[in-house]
Request: fold
Amino acid sequence: MNSSSRYDVAIIGAGMSGLAAGIRLAHFGKRVCIFERHNAVGGLNGFYSTDGRKFDVGLHAMTNFVRPGVKGTPLVKLLRQLRIDRDEFALCEQKQSRVAFGPRGQTSLRFTNDFAVFESEVARVFPAQIDGFRALVAAIRTYDDVALDAAPESARAIVRRHVTDPLLEDMLFCPVMYYGSASEHDMEFGQFVIMFKALFLEGFARPFDGVRVILRVLLEKYRTAGGERRMKCGVRRIVAQAGRAHVLILDDGTEIVADHIISSIGLPETEKLIAPGETAAVDVSVAAEPTAAASAPGAHSFVETITILDRQPAALGWGDDTIVFFNDSSRFDYACPRDWVDVRSGVICFPNNFDFGPDRALPEGIFRVTCLAKPAPWFAAAEADYRSAKAAWFSDVARSARRFLPPVADADLAAATIATDMFTPRTIARYTGHVNGAIYGAPRKIRDGRTALANLYLCGTDQGFLGIIGAMLSGISMANYHILQKG
Amino acid sequence: MTKDECKQVVLDIIADIAPDEDLSNVKPDVRLRDQLQLDSMDFLDIVMELRKRHGIEVPEAEYMQLASLDSCAEYLTPKFNALAAKG
Reply:
């Protein structure tokens, strides 16, 4: 076996978490290679080009934003660990966001990157709940959300100890679940804490040019540190022997040997790659492990509509909102829809409405809406049906979301629209390999990253640190914990 | 290597790991953790940068020797000098 097929560490997937793990390992002298099936980096947080326009895939806003001088938060840890100067990300803060509930968004809580704004909104709209809300926030601030061995608890149960009005409870869960919950209805409290801090106690920001700025920085760090990567080069099989990952077999049949393997592609997706060794006909040690049984993938996915406008959204009359989380029903129902899409709730994003500085604006207006989607019909549809479903749901999604924005006449919107695009569970699965197009992965997270095989670890979505910053911290934590700390 | 040079080596590493910290007034006899915002991830990085840049090994059981600049100098200077003598 020649040297180009032997590594200290092989990483599966060139998304945020895989790149971050790779930077750490390469920086400290490990021989590391990232294998990526797609021809572009970024994974769930990538970008694509159509008709000369670049669209971000996952990024509405980067969460976890804190201003210079604030220390000890995920963003600061990440910058230090990857030796990134915060100016390299050139982050611009959100203007303002809202949680809007009711058929026309009558109950609305505004928030910004200054938490006092959100707290005063809760006090204004829910005066009887403010003491409970403050107690909840205190519990969130003191919770150790990075412990790798925390016992799972219901977030709904803990929140209800402090917040007794179901409307406020749902208004807190809506943004938190939409920005990271792999489970339906309820989530694990540790996950809730991570997202609540990321959205409300920290905040939203974005580089002017979107997610590709962050990816460019990561790639440059990785390359400079001496990391290798092979694109259009997926891993087809992980051959197990005596409880260890023995050989990786790539899509083109090449065999790779590595002392350690970090997989960012998801838990069920990784399990599917594991095959018993060819020399040992039945590898009892693997078959006997309970985690070797297939894990359930996430049940729900999302659609997103993108409308490109010939002017800024504010010029059309839509105001300054950066993100609007909406729900029209009496309860917020975060679950796999019965129909193809559930348009009752969703998330609106105007990437234009970040504070990019004077005289700087995105060249075109962008109106994005995300709603929950049921994966099965999108996967089962024949091509023609798929295309017509896309067109039909596009207008339903946009119409539903517009109820939560200042009114704009249909004719005015049509006249300002210069292009549209939409992605579905099928699109997500095609480009990321996630079963069901489940952006947030499997409901069960493996915080310590361990798998049935001793030298195979998970990072990314199914390790359970959420969001873009969480993804990068996941790669860092797993590289540190399993490889670098062990010398 | 003198103890002062050794302290500078440690400060140089911290400056790279935590560029957002002000290192102009670090007191050598006070625990680094008590005057700078450094967490366990940062301390791991000090250890790993010592290995990467200078070939100095700090076993996990001896991490507490890196608590302050003075204790760093006491503990690391002989290691640097032993390495130089070998070299």
User: Anything to note?
Assistant: Chain B has a mean pLDDT of 94.
